[in-house]
Write a structure and sequence with these properties.
Layout (H helix, E strand, L loop, with lengths): L2 H21 L2 H17 L1 H17 L4 H7 L3 H15 L8 E6 L5 E8 L2 E6 L4 H12 L3 E5 L5 H17 L7 E3 L5 H8 L7 E5 L2 H10 L12 E5 L5 H13 L8 E7 L4 H13 L3 E4 L1 H4 L6 E2 L13 E7 L1 H12 L4 E5 L3 H10 L4 E4 L19 E2 L7 E2 L6 E8 L7
Helix pairs in contact: 1-8, 2-5, 2-7, 3-7, 5-6, 6-7, 10-11, 13-14
């Protein structure tokens, strides 16, 4: 079977599964997801072995440290995966939710209700957790999914797929609702991108190369997750303890996640002690600072930044640093160099903070909180299928609601249009 025929067969099976999922009671979908979570726990030892093999092979292949971190599983991460599924199972089912209703003067009653998107293609790299999260979110929102993980996570992904499909089977739902496109064959990705009329939306999660290919070749709508060139701006009004704690957490809690801070912006009017404390804390924590001249003068361990540093997603213990002229300077810098993902301000001046919240046009904007809260679980969504940085359909962490569209129901009593 060639790539196009293989994807067509998978998509048609998924389309049939959507019909069953869209009509399934909330309790049945939730039972499938909980059964999948239980199976993941039962397969803990096997998952650790499979993942260790994936990590060893990826390390031998020279994969980057950032991607290795995303690939690696341990007991804590596997348990968090299972708990995330259980959280999704307990969320409000969006399918059939009434969004809005109204009545026209002619007596026609209109109601807008949520419905599944349909068949979702998800193309991702390194993160085996996406397999479980995406499957659970699609099941609960009444969608079927074709998952195409990277070859570096093939063993982990296959075992997680088996766990999820065991849950579907236990609940009496079609296993074709969640399918894995075989990794390694790039022609299969091309077939997914060209499957207009079979796949309803493509969601890429990966590096620039993957996202660029998807956006260039797709004949299917794309919900893109681009770079996380995220900023923390420390205002002159910031509390020193908050500024140090938020900046350290934003950069160094996990450097390889898309919500990590990549650029620190310091208010030129800030007390030197405040700026020095933040910079020293980062340097003491092992973060390489690539700074402009004004920031270099505040921290002797900082090195000179190149212009491209301010447009770089490091995903490592590195950060660019610039001194800016107040909140307006910070907003201008983010507009010029940001990726519309996540940006934060540390400030005690509420008026300044509100100006930042209102004028920074990113998917997530925070006041006095770490950028690493850019995560569906932290938003109360249980899991996410990605963080959308575009402006259409959905922005920020995409969970159940973001995986639905709507239709309008019209109820009449014999009305005809004059």
């Amino acid at each position: 079977m060639d790539a196009q025929a293989e994807i067509s067969a998978m998509a048609l099976a998924a389309r049939a599964a959507v019909t069953a999922l869209a009509a399934a009671p909330t309790a049945t979908k939730a039972a499938a997801i909980r059964a999948g979570a239980a199976q993941i726990r039962r397969q803990m030892a096997a998952l650790l072995i499979a993942n260790a093999e994936d990590v060893a092979a990826a390390r031998d292949a020279g994969i980057s440290a950032a991607l290795l971190d995303r690939l690696a599983l341990d007991e804590k991460r596997i348990e968090a995966m299972a708990e995330g599924l259980e959280t999704v199972a307990g969320l409000t089912d969006p399918v059939g939710e009434s969004i809005k209703s109204w009545t026209q003067p002619n007596g026609l009653r209109f109601e807008r209700v949520r419905v599944p998107l349909g068949v979702i293609g998800i193309i991702y790299e390194s993160r085996p957790g996406v397999t479980a999260d995406a499957a659970a979110l699609c099941i609960m929102s009444g969608n079927a999914c074709l998952l195409r993980g990277g070859s570096e996570a093939a063993r982990s992904n296959r075992l997680l797929l088996d766990c999820v499909r065991a849950g579907l089977k236990a609940a009496g739902l079609p296993e074709a609702a969640v399918q894995m496109v075989p990794p390694g064959d790039r022609a299969l990705v091309g077939a997914m991108l060209g499957a207009h009329g079979l796949i309803d939306i493509i969601i890429p999660r990966g590096g620039k190369g993957l996202v660029a290919r998807v956006q260039a070749e797709a004949r299917v709508p794309v919900l893109a997750h681009l770079d996380g060139i995220n900023h923390v701006y420390v205002d002159a009004s910031a509390d020193m303890a908050k500024a140090v704690a938020i900046t350290l957490n934003s950069k160094l809690r996990r450097t390889a996640v898309c919500g990590a801070m990549e650029t620190l912006l310091l208010d030129r009017a800030a007390a030197p002690a405040l700026a020095r404390a933040v910079l020293a804390a980062l340097a003491d924590g092992g973060c390489e600072l690539r700074a402009d001249a004004a920031a270099q003068a505040l921290e002797p361990r900082a090195i000179a930044a190149a212009p491209e540093d301010f447009d770089t997603e490091y995903l490592d213990a590195m950060a660019s640093v610039a001194v800016v002229d107040g909140v307006e300077g910070a907003i201008a810098h983010i507009a010029a160099h940001g990726s519309d993902h996540t940006d934060a301000i540390v400030a005690e001046d509420a008026a300044v903070a509100e100006r930042f919240l209102g004028q920074v046009d990113s998917a997530i904007v925070l006041w006095n909180a770490s950028t690493q809260f850019a995560d569906g679980g932290e938003f109360g969504f249980g899991a996410e299928i990605g963080i959308a940085t575009g402006r259409l359909h959905a922005r920020g962490p995409v969970a159940l609601e973001g995986l639905t569209t709507y239709k309008t129901l019209v109820r009449g009593n014999g009305q005809v249009r004059p």
